[in-house]
Design goal:
This protein is α+β, with helices and mostly antiparallel strands. The chain contains twelve helices and ten strands. It folds into three domains: about 70 residues, Arc Repressor Mutant, subunit A (Orthogonal Bundle), CATH 1.10.10.10; about 140 residues, Beta-Lactamase (2-Layer Sandwich), CATH 3.30.450.40; about 100 residues, Enolase-like, N-terminal domain (Enolase-like, domain 1). The longest helix has 18 residues. The two termini are about 40 Å apart.
């Protein structure tokens, strides 16, 4: 392929990404200052290669899946991050009060807002997450009912604070006493095993020393369930952005895509251990034929996982690749 044909393909891809409208030969004549016959011949050549295709409703051309792939592999130039975008990300990255996992998730939320695509963080190395402490902090107490804060902390500094309204029949001192029993018996237990040991070991222990032990057990069981959910290893941002993709104007396709985003096993397939920022388009995503997934693996201390952006095939590839590279490099410093 000659240089002019490559440049024509680049313009068609980038113009379509910006406008979502097929690109006419006339607009390319104005762009390249050559005859209309030359442009038509070049477009016919690109079409024969399967890099562009005709949309049914227009005489213009749009990139094919193969065309997007050629563009990414051969023509893509990284886009510079704006000062405002950099400031938003650095504000999070420089916040020493945030643990790495929270900083990564918040940065991906920002990238989702910037790009208007869907972001996914799939955390790895969850087997190292263990219980460090559980605390009960009474806020107020009355015969009708009380309010407490249950605080759960992991070995990696993840913290969950849950404010709970407690039935007046439950003695707050018994909640505190049970938390002390849990701290003695379960510290160092993997988070995903805490509920199991709570039932098998703690429940029998408190049966004889806690008056309303069933209610107290249920209180802690629910608290740990909520904590496990909050510390799920898959975090989405901008799920509803998919509503703006023209590929999902059809209600059936939209419902199908929403179902895929809710399918944990399918989303897990996005996970990668590739250190480079890689682009997967259409069928090669193994997720959905109408999307692009750009993803990379990160590792910082005990934290590691996958950063991914899901968007239409007409994605701003240059912007997403640059943002993911920037985030990865900064969290791994």
């Amino acid at each position: 392929m000659g240089e002019r044909q490559e440049n024509i393909l680049r313009v068609i891809v980038e113009t379509y990404i910006k406008s979502f409208k097929p690109v006419s030969s006339k607009s390319l004549v104005d762009e390249f200052k050559v005859s209309s016959a030359t442009i038509r011949n070049d477009m016919a050549f690109l079409e024969d290669l399967g890099l562009i295709e005709k949309e049914h409703t227009s005489s213009g051309r749009i990139p094919s899946e193969k065309g997007y792939k050629y563009y990414v592999d051969n023509l893509l130039q990284p886009k510079k991050i704006t000062g405002e975008e950099m400031l938003k990300l650095q504000t999070i990255l420089n916040n020493n009060n945030l643990v790495i996992s929270d900083a990564v998730t918040k940065c991906m939320e920002i990238i989702s807002d910037i790009t208007h695509y869907t972001s996914v963080v799939i955390e790895g190395n969850k087997s190292n997450l263990t219980l460090k402490q559980v605390s009960i902090i009474p806020l107020n107490e009355s015969p009708e009912g009380s309010q407490v804060v249950c605080v759960l902390v992991t070995n990696q500094g993840d913290v969950s604070n849950k404010t709970v309204n407690v039935d007046g029949d439950i003695n707050l001192r018994e909640l505190v006493k049970t938390s002390e029993i849990i701290n003695k018996a379960l510290i160092g237990t993997p988070i995903d095993k805490v509920n199991e040991r709570l039932e098998l070991e703690i429940k029998p222990k408190i049966r004889d020393v806690i008056e309303r032990y069933e209610e107290v057990y249920n209180f802690f069981n629910e608290a740990f369930n909520d904590f496990s959910t909050a510390n799920s290893d898959i975090f989405f941002s901008g799920k509803t952005n998919i509503l703006d993709y023209k590929e999902y104007d059809d209600a059936k396709r939209l419902k199908e895509m929403v179902g895929k985003l809710e399918d944990t096993d399918l989303v897990k397939h996005i996970e990668t251990d590739d250190d480079g920022v890689k682009v997967y388009i259409g069928e090669e995503t193994e997720f959905d034929k109408d999307v692009t997934i750009i993803k990379t693996h990160y590792k910082a201390g005990n934290n590691e996982g996958t950063l991914a952006i899901i968007g239409p095939k007409s994605m701003e590839y240059d912007k997403v690749v640059t943002l993911l590279n920037y985030l990865k490099n900064n969290i791994e410093r």
